[in-house]
Amino acid sequence: MDNYINDYLSFFTQNSEPVKNIVEKHVEYWIPEPVPTIILFSRIGKVLADQLHSLNKTERSLFLSILN
What we know:
- It is a single chain.
- The protein is built from 4 helices and no strands.
- It is mainly α and 68 residues long.
- It has one domain.
């Protein structure tokens, strides 16, 4: 399970600066504990939803394809 979580985090943080920023912010806030997965992915979802309108069709397809 952790591998899937790390794969998703890696994909989203490498392809979206806003997602990378929110992940870094939450990791720093929660140190020394790990960020609860549900909180981290809820924030990532919000950031992605906020930026979907500004992505072109190819970028949007890339982000949505990872969810399948």
